[in-house]
Every structure is written in C-alpha cells, then in structure tokens.
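fwd from M.: "can u put these together and see what the complex looks like"

so here's what she sent:
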Amino acid sequence: MKKKIYSVLVENRSGVLSKVAGLFSRRNFNIESLAVGETDAKDVSCMTIVSSGDQHTIEQIEKQLNKKIDVIKVKTFDESQVIARELMLIKVKYNKTNRRDVMEICDIMKAQIVDMSKHFMMIQLCDVPERTSLMISMLQSISIVEVARTGTLALGKCQEND
Amino acid sequence: MNGADAIIKCLEAEQVTTVFGYPGVAICPFYNSILESDIRTILIRTEQNAAHAASGMARMTGRPGVCAVTSGPGATNVITGIATAFADSIPLIVITGQVNSELLGSDVFQEADITGAVESFVKYSYLVRDAKDIPRIFKEAFHIANTGRKGPVLIDVPIDVQNANIDKFVYPSEINMRTYKPTVKGNMVQIKKVEKELEKAKKPLLCVGGGVLLSEAEGEIREFSKRFGVPVVSTMMGIGVMPTKDPLYFGMVGNNGKPYANKAIQDCDLLIMVGARVADRAVNQPEIITRNKVLVHIDVDPAEIGKNAGPTIPLVGDAKHIFEDLLAQEVTCDCKDWTKELGEWRVSMAPKRNPNPDYVDPAAFITMLSEKMQDNGVYVADVGQNQIWSCAYHIVKNGRFMTSGGMGTMGYSIPAAMGAKLAAPDRQVIAVCGDGSFQMSMMELATMRQHNVPVKIIVIKNNYLGMVRQYQHFTYKDHYSVVDLSGSPDLEKLVSAYDMKYLRLDNMKNAEKVLDAFLAKDESILLEVRIDPMDLV
C-alpha cells in the first residue's frame, strides 16, 4: 500500500464534487482526505485527494479521474514531492488547573488561540497533517469539545521548470 | 422560438431521423415542437425499451440513437436501458423532461434527480439551466456520445427551459471543451513495437471486441488477418467482426465460448486484444492472457488498458486508425504451423451435443436459420440460454450480430431489433429470444403494429428461465427455485391480438419448410420454437 496525493483541477460546476467522490466509492478506492476550493481562475476548482492502494489501484485512480469529462488535469504525487498542510480548529474546555498546560502545548506546537470564553478556548493550527494529529492527541487529556480539519492541501514542490 | 423548438433544431442539425420515447407533461413542449419537424416519433410501450430501440438504431447507423421521456418515473424507467448502452459503449442521447427549475429539489409530483441517479451509467449528463445553452449542450452531447469510447449522454431539461423564449438559434460549428480530447491516432513508437513482436511471434492471435465494430474497423481487421495470416478470436461483443466461416476465425472466447478459442488464448505467444475489456465472462483468469506471452492491448479508453490485465504493450487509440497504420507497414509474419494446429483443434475440440429428437435442437435450428437468412441480415440475440446458443451457432455472413453483452439485459432483442429495422428497412432483422426475455418486451408488439416495423421474432420456448435453471441444475443439484414459467400466454393467441402471423416448430422434421415460410416475406411474424426444457448450453 502506497500513499498518493492527487491534485485534481476540475471545472467549477455544480455536481462535480459528487461525481468525483462517487467515482471513489463506486470503484472501491479509499479516500483518506479530500479538500476542495476555487483556484485563481473562478471557473476552476482544485481538489486535493489523499488516497492509498497498490500500484494497480493508484494507476486506475489516475486513469478514472482523467476519464471524467469535468476533470481538467490530474497530478499524482508521493508525499515527498509536495508541500502539504492542513488547517485545524479545535475547541477545548479548560479550567484553572489545566489552562497553563493548554497554553504551553499551543506554544510548543506553534498553534494560536483564536477565540475564548470563560470555560472554552478555540485553537487554530496550520501544519503538516501528522502534526495536526499530534496536536489532537496532546489535547485529548484536556477535554476536546469539537474538531474541524480541512483535510490535506498540497502543491508540488517548486521547480524551475514549473 | 422556444427551448423545445431549439432542441428539435439541434436534432435536425445532427441528422437525427427518429426519436423513441414516451411523453408526459414535463416533456410535452418537446413533443409539441417535434410535430413541426420531419423527425419520426416512435411511441414505445415502456421507457426502458426506448433506450434499447435507440441502441439498436445507433449500432446500425454509427450515429447516436435518440430517445426522449418524461420526468420522474419516465426518467427512472429508462435507466436500465442507459446502463445497458453504457456497458456496451453504445452512443445514445437521452432527453428527459424535468419539473420546473424553481421547483427542483422540492420533491414535487414526478420529480426525480435523474442526473444524480444515472451518474455511474452515463458518459456525461447535463441539467439545462438556461435555454440559451441548448445549442452548445446538444453539440457537445452528440460529440461526447460518439467519440472516444462511445456511450450514453443524458440531457435533463426542465419544462420552463423548454418553454423559455430564445431570440435566435445558432448551432455551433465547433466544439470548445478543454477537458475532452480523446486520443484517436495510436502512438507510432508503440505501433512499431507491435510490428516487431509480430515478426518475432510464432503463435500470434488477435482477440477482437465490440470496440472494433464501434470504430467500424471490421475491414481493417479482416485485411490484417488475411495479409499476415493471423488467426482471430472474438469476445461476445466482437461477434461479426470476422465472418464466422472465415478460415482464420476461431470463434468466441470465454466461459461460454469455443474450447479451441480458449486454448488458442492460452497457447499463443503474442495476443493482440483490440477493443475488448478483458472482463470476467471473456477472460475469467486474467493471468492466462499475460503468462508466457506478449500482450498488446489496444483500446480507445486508456482506463481499460491495464484495468483487468497488465499488458506488455499498451496502445491507446481508435482501432480503425491503428490498424490502418499497422497495415501501412511492411511486416513479415509466419505462423502457418500455428494456424494449422488451430485448425486441427477446431475439429478435435468441437463441442458435441446430444439433441433430443422429440424437440427442436437449438444448435441445428440456429445454424439452419443463419444459412437461410439474407447475406446482410441482422440477428439480435436476447439474454439467456438463447443468447449462448446464438453466439455459438449463428453464422455471420455480411450482416450484423447484436446482443446485450456487458449488462446482459433481458428483453433487449425486440426493441433493439425495432431500432435496427427502422435504421435499415431493406434488411432482414430477426430478434431471437427465450420465453422469459420475450415476456419482458412483449408490449412492443403494439409498437411494431402501430408504426409498421416488420421485425421477425423467434421465441425459443422451454417454459423455464433456462440459464438460471441450468445454473441451479449444476450449483444446487436441480433444486429449482423461481425458474418455472408456467402461466406464460398462448403465443399464437397473443400475437393474433396484434394481427401478427404465427408459426410453430416442434421438432427438426419440418424445420426447413417452416423456416422458409418464416423468412419468405418482409413482415412481422413470430416463430415459436419448442426445445427440450432440460437442454443445456
């Protein structure tokens, strides 16, 4: 099993997300994460899909994606070929005794506290996916209320022939 | 001019002659506008058959078949027909009426999310939001349906869009789609590799699929086989690429194929698969076609290459172009010993049957029928035991053989034969079905009568769902479950209700005479053929 990151440029039209997601479920390909957003061109969206499989599956995913008429371009990357980031918002319940611990963890992880109330705190972290997962495990002892993650966003590393 | 008028103008621009369908309120503007056109409308008796009939027409003409149905149940009924066409890569344009745009998503009367429902069975689909987009969408739809790997395209048109006014109609002359550019020409580097392998090969074999017929490359394949002496086998969908009696043709491969065709696939040292998917019924163990041999896989759809078996030489492109390029090369291929060996297997491995003389022997009957059919006749086989016998014993001369290969949709033959007959009124068109599959489409006898479509029908009757009965015979040791067709109608009485002629054949004694009478005139006629209910394929 190899992990691959697919950067898929698609027509920014209604229904395209469900077509691509439907392709994965129908063909029995797994999706570890999927993130979508507009690009600099208004009529083009970029979907970043993290998936894994054997060599045959990886090839099929790329071919089947390319076959979709709404798909403009598919780029397939190994983890080492991209800069990958994930944005996470995490809400925790704190009290007097663990308040400092939370702040210390945030400090170590370079996370920001973006909102707070008397008993709750919202923390933002933008980092590689492994570190967002690490942040969750660090805060598990504090009492996590809610978590929202974007899923992996990735672009191929800068090369002079880009 | 309104949206519906514009749709008709698009169909005229695409030289559509016939629309199969079934109206309902949501498609009424379309059916109102079509009255002003020369396009013929055929009122089919259930929507699924509209797609099958359009499929039969598409396969005869090489142009997309068109059907138009209403929203909700009309649209959902057509899905099986769409899926059938999709599995066999048949180009269709399916127009569905839809509820008013403003009501979309509110579950009003006869609303169904048809573009969502058919997503995995269509090559592409459109939901028309603005009548101004109609010319572009139809231009694209016909292009998508009939290029690259062909397939059905669905266009869902809300009733208000059909009724909306359009200032002027201009049918685009060009297509501007950045995401859709199918490969047609084969890569010359790969083609050269194929030639090298051909020169080396001692036991080359060509395996042709439905893609060859879709690309209209039969001529090139026949020429290639003849010039280089390369033997040919086919999948079910590839039947008819080679004339059955061609000395270099060795029959259909697969579970229900000829044993010598399967042995040829195993023993060859160079296998060239063309327009074939390597699906389970044709090649149930993909490693057989890769082991100890060079596999060349030619297909217009890159995703098919390597999906079920990894080829040595992948070659993406249209079969016709690729074989034109291959034929333009100087290649010496010597495989006389191999074809001689295959010829011997054809004799020694010929399947033997033990027919019951009290009934008609389907094998002998189909062979006799084929011999008596017109040279360019069209034979449409349904699904079940009848299909397997048809594949095994029908002799294609210069005609066509059609069946639902990928999806195996029962009831395909009668509507598809109607579509074929309307496309080629001068040719003899025969639908061959079982008593199960006949009853799935027998409502179309009315369509044949109403629109005067003289299709000939043969019902191979054994009072069973024979293919399933046979499966239960082997798998469950004759523990038959829900395969008995008692209660079926008296076919003579049934067809007389439609003013249709009827003949019956109980055993082989009168076969010649009855078949001559059956084929004598260009008319609708049904021949009931009684076979041994326990017969196996």
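replying to her w this: Chain B is about 35% helix and 15% strand.
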